[in-house]
Amino acid sequence: MAPIASPFHSARWFAELVARASADQSAMERLGIAEIRLGLEIVDANGPPHMYGIVLDGYDIESLGEVMEKEFAPEVVVSGPADAWQEMISSIEANGSADAAHTLNSLTITGLPFSVRAGDAMGHDKFFRYMGTLQAIFDAAGTPATVSTGR
Amino acid sequence: MCLNDSDRQSKGYVMALGLDLDYLERSARGEFDLGWLRNGHSEWGVHAKPSKTGLTMRDIAIGSYGEVPDHAPRRTMAPRGSDVDPDVPDLGYTINDKAEVWSDNLLDLYEEAVSRQWSATRDIPWGDLPELDPDIEHAMCQLATVLSEVEMVAADFPAKWLWRINHDFVEAKMFLCTQVMDEARHTEVFRKRALANGGGLGRSSAVVERFLQLILDAESYDEGSALMHLLGEGIVLSLFRAGEFLSPSPVEKKIFRLCMQDEARHVAYGTMHLRYRLDRDPSIAEDFHAYLDKGEEIIAMIFATPEIVEPTAILAAGGVEQASELGTAAGEVMRHQIIGEYLKRCQHAGLDRRGRLHLPEVLIQGVPGAMPEAMA
Predict the structure, then answer these.
(1) Complex ipTM
(2) In terms of domains, do B126 and B220 share one?
(3) Residue B29 sits in the same domain as residue B111
(4) H/E element holding B22?
């Protein structure tokens, strides 16, 4: 499958990711409703971190592009070094979906290479409540036009 | 010919439920009562509007229908907001205060639960299970055995209390019904996993059963909900996360990911229910501390029961040989996660357990906020 044309990381890359994930509305409906403001923080080796905002509202997914954390007010943030993000995306593109070592849960469970932070326990737990949907969104990087239901 | 009461009794037509038998005859003659039509007090003209996911429980919580009384005025199954006969029987509900079961996220959690249902038969690619190293298969089956065992208590507990909860809090009952279904599916999926790949069921230990008994025998919904929704399911949520991470194949990964979502929903109810409860009556905080003082031993159980520790370590390490070293490291991650996340949920609920955990020091060392000096 053709990888997303825009460079990772960029607002256009996330917009295309969300467009791919949203393309199969019935698959998103099958995953179920979700309500979360998710910040994805990419920490470059040099320079300031970049945060991209994704909002799940019912069955809708919206990419807000690059955001300022304070204004975006994410309920939960997944943060990690750019090369780890790139490795995850490359794995998904190569395999069509995340392999065992590159699921969002696998990458965050020990706090390395990705960490999860939230203002409170409810925000933190939303990351687990919608894990299937969030994984399906990222897996869309490997499956244009349709998204795995994660089921 | 009309029958009088004496005739009816002599012919065996004794109606114990208070039916108006004369109405049978009147309606047969076309004489309708129409009291329900003419004398109703319902909100005529109410038009609940669907939101973008459909007509949700929040959409219909409008006008007087959305008003949930702090104390239920009667103990019946009459739908809240309906016109109720004055001589309805008392159905004996024992949970008649909203704060005993309510949470602010209840309506949304119910909708989420309904829309995120999945099938252990259809949605798991059972045909893709690979043949595993026998030790790994045994470890997976032992973990599946424990999970199949413990998950059902999270159906038994709400089922035990459902019929005692006043129907005015029907949204809480509906959410608990979704939990019963979720837990049935978890029991199903782990039983199926144990039987699907050659390993079969493992060992059920007495200590696990004693903890399940603690939840099932809770003397109040308060106590049981704190032990189960907040403490027990929080621990199982961490186990599911670990399971997804340690899964030997994509099949188990999918199982754990789907279960994780359900479990997190139950924990979200438990956390926000406790917060609602304590917001309205802070004086009962010590009662909840006492429940958790008693229940936190369940955390120690996770790390002191071979049937849980060892399969997890073997799955983490990829085999028995490496388990003592790599598995211990995985156990450390889980220990920090389980205790740290539990403390944060308690704090969010308004119950500060920092520094007063009833756990051996060896378990709480190094976990932020867990040691007694955290309160200093």
Answers:
(1) 0.92
(2) yes
(3) no
(4) helix B21-28
